[in-house]
Design brief:
Length: 326
């Protein structure tokens, strides 16, 4: 017997289940494709928990909640707490000043400091910004770890289609972009990524390379793998990675370190990030249904906070600052 039904087992739905359990509510978790995989947007994420860097463009609400995300993820999966290094090609140095002016929590790095942080990039970049308190995780491992933790509490992902209106009792709708018809203004923002493998380069932390048109990040993963991400294209069209995007991502990686030219391409992938007009994730309350959606480029950063507010509402009736009444 369950207290609440959660639809969707992406990062939002899995965190919703975890937060409900923590508050003594027994969830039933349903996903149309089963456990997390390439069918969900969460599969394609970089796994950066970078509230300060995201703050260059994101609302203060996201920075404030995002700062608490690492402590919550640490309880679930292996977290790499090495900060973020932000660089810019020499001709785009002004980008670094603009980024520094729009963000907090960084120190400026000279060439020696860059070499000390990332010896493999030493000598290639003259100035950088080091965001000391940021973290990253492997998103696919993190999703698997969430599934496993839920299973130890007796909650498994049921495979099946569900619609909130077709269910009785409280529902947390975490269908991502599939909830578009029920949520006015929800749109898809395409993100494309490439995974490379090389033994020639070692990086310890995510590197962001600023560029006026094609900003890029590289997230190191185990086994000599590097995730290059991510485009941000205002289109609702699904599909694979375009040749243009592949060129941009690979050129930016080459600008960061020319040895990426010799790397093996393991994977290219794309999905649509669910986003509202202001790109702020929210809990939309409609009677007994709570929609957790619009996670945009902040799914891993914001899912713990959204889930906690949904679970708190179900157990106490209190609404948080991410709530919207419909
Ligand atoms: C290239 C890329 C890079 C990114 N990098 C980052 C990053 O570094 N950090 C970060 O925080 N975020 C990042 N994001 C954003 C993040 O991935 C998304 O915000 C997040 O995955 C959205 O999660 P979700 O749970 O809402 O949706 P999803 O992961 O899509 O999950 C929705 C689930 O609902 C299920 N479903 C749909 N309809 C039904 C139905 N009718 N019945 C049952 N189940 C249903 C689907 O099968 C799916 O599993 C990135 C995104 C992309 C594309």
């Amino acid at each position: 017997m369950s207290d609440v039904t959660i639809i969707g087992a992406g990062v939002a739905g899995l965190w919703a289940a975890r937060s409900c359990l923590a508050r003594g509510l027994r969830p039933r978790l349903i996903d149309r494709t089963g456990a997390p995989g390439p069918h969900g947007c969460s599969w394609w994420a970089g796994g950066m928990l970078a509230p300060e860097c995201e703050g260059a463009l994101a609302e203060p609400l996201i920075v404030a909640h995002g700062r608490k995300a690492a402590a919550l993820w640490r309880q679930v999966t292996e977290l790499h707490e090495q900060g973020t290094l932000v660089l810019a090609p020499e001709r785009d140095r002004a980008e670094l000043d603009r980024f520094a002016a729009r963000t907090e929590g960084h120190v400026t790095c000279d060439p020696d400091a860059i070499t000390a942080l990332e010896p493999d990039l030493g000598g290639r970049h003259r100035r950088g910004l080091f965001f000391t308190d940021e973290a990253h995780l492997d998103p696919r491992q993190a999703l698997a770890d969430l599934v496993e933790a839920l299973a130890t509490s007796g909650v498994t992902v049921e495979t099946g289609m569900a619609e909130p209106s077709g269910l009785d009792g409280p529902v947390i709708d975490c269908r991502g972009l599939a909830a578009r018809r029920d949520l006015a203004g929800l749109r898809g923002v395409r993100g494309e990524m490439i995974v490379l493998r090389t033994d020639e380069i070692t990086l310890t932390r995510p590197i962001r390379l600023l560029h006026p048109r094609h900003p890029l990040y590289v997230v190191p993963r185990a086994g000599g793998r590097f995730m290059l991400g991510a485009t941000q294209i205002e289109t609702g069209a699904r599909g694979g990675v375009t040749a243009r995007s592949a060129l941009e991502l690979l050129s930016a990686a080459y600008a960061l370190d020319p040895r990426f030219a010799e790397a093996e391409i393991l994977e290219m992938g794309a999905d649509l990030r669910p986003a509202f007009a202001d790109n702020v994730p929210r809990v939309v309350r409609r009677g007994r249904i709570l929609h957790l959606n619009g996670l945009f480029r902040h799914g891993f950063l914001m899912a713990p906070a959204l889930a906690e507010q949904a679970a708190e509402f179900l157990s106490t009736g209190k609404t948080g600052d991410l709530f919207h009444e419909d």
